[in-house]
Amino acid sequence: MEFAGIIAEYDPFHNGHAAQLQMLRARGAGRIAVCISAAAVQRGGFPLLPEPVRVQAALQAGADLVAALPAPYACLGAEGFAAAGVALLTALGCDTLAFGAETPDAGLLMRAARLVDSPALAEGLQRHLAGGATFAAARAAAAEELEPGTGALLASPNNILGVEYCKAILRQGSHLQPLPLPRLAAGHGTAETGAIQGRPVASASYLRELAWGRGLDAALEFVPAQAAALYRAAADRGELLDPDKFSVAVLSRLRGQGRQQLAAVRGLSEGLENRLYAAVQKAATVQELYDLLKTRRYPHARLRRLVLDAALGVTEGLVPQTPPYLHVLGARRQALGALRYAALPAGTSLAELARGSAPAEAVAQLHSAFADLSALCRQRPMPAGLAFTAKPVII
Fold first, then answer.
1. 71-115 pLDDT, tens per residue?
2. Which of 75, 169, 305, 342 meets the CB 3.0–4.6 Å disulfide criterion with 346?
3. Host domain of residue 291
4. Residue 265: beta bridge partners?
5. Is 265 part of a structural domain of the chain?
6. Other CB atoms within 10 Å distance of the CB of residue 194
7. CB burial of residue 317 (10 Å; 0-12, 13-18, 19+)
8. DSSP strand pairing (3-8 vs 193-196)
9. Distance CA 187, CA 63 (A)
10. Rg of the chain's alpha carbons, rounded to an integer?
11. pLDDT 10s digits, 253-296
12. Is residue 283 a part of any domain in this protein?
């Protein structure tokens, strides 16, 4: 393992993430690159802290290079999110993809990936979907019928994403070797707390809840000291995400759209655009909107992504399936040499990358639209255009 890669959100970067970097060093990683969600996150929202803060926290904790997972891909379901991240790390030249998993067994996860991508699964999947199950539950049930034990593996959130990473590696013919690492001390998306090597850990979702509910200081015991200093400085500058501003910004965009506009949004189907249009007229907050939209078939995370895509006008086919460039947000200076060997156009200037091709321009402009809306949703709103003008973090 010479060049390890990680796909992450770091929303926010915390002690568990730092421990993962240390674990990779201990296993012999010479360099570590992180592909980080930029300007949007997979749950269908914006990150608590802007990119420069999260990038610097990762570099200070031991990452060598941080590249952007552009917002149109960061705001996708597990399959699209994983495919984009795998494509970028493959293009960068990483030889290993490390990720947390409840079942840290690469062989089992690769076997599950082959199963869920096989034609044999289709009949059972459609049968369970027709019965009203969510996609994740239907897939797990169909997999269990074909290979007992796989259903339980596919019921855990980190395993699900790990299987998608493995599936993307197989589909893309990537040279990446999967390296699942045990998720320690705190479960994904829970309020559990624990400790790794004497350092308190909690999930990123719990830290966001603490920051918004009890104030940023309540979350800082769970992050490295250097990161805590960065977060306090960002809070002093008013850069933390304001959920109320996010709510108003998203609803204001949606209320200006008609049914035909909503019908063109990627991922909307089965008449969901009519349900969304009606809900937008009633909802006073995005949380009310999510509640009005919720059905047994559509989990909250998917609905949140659909809502954000609708607010930004993301239509089917607007961007290619995987990113057409590799945008570096930050790096240790000596790690920048890796860009010379990248299989995609690579660099630290999004403006220059956007000029490379029509698909690059489309992705960059849409990413910038996400970033501009995110900038408006900070405690102290930030100017537009930062996606193109922000300087890389070089240490």
1. 999 999 999 999 999 999 999 999 999 999 999 999 999 999 999
2. 342
3. 243-312
4. 315
5. yes
6. 14
7. exposed
8. unpaired
9. 23
10. 20
11. 999 999 999 999 998 877 888 999 999 999 999 999 999 998 87
12. yes
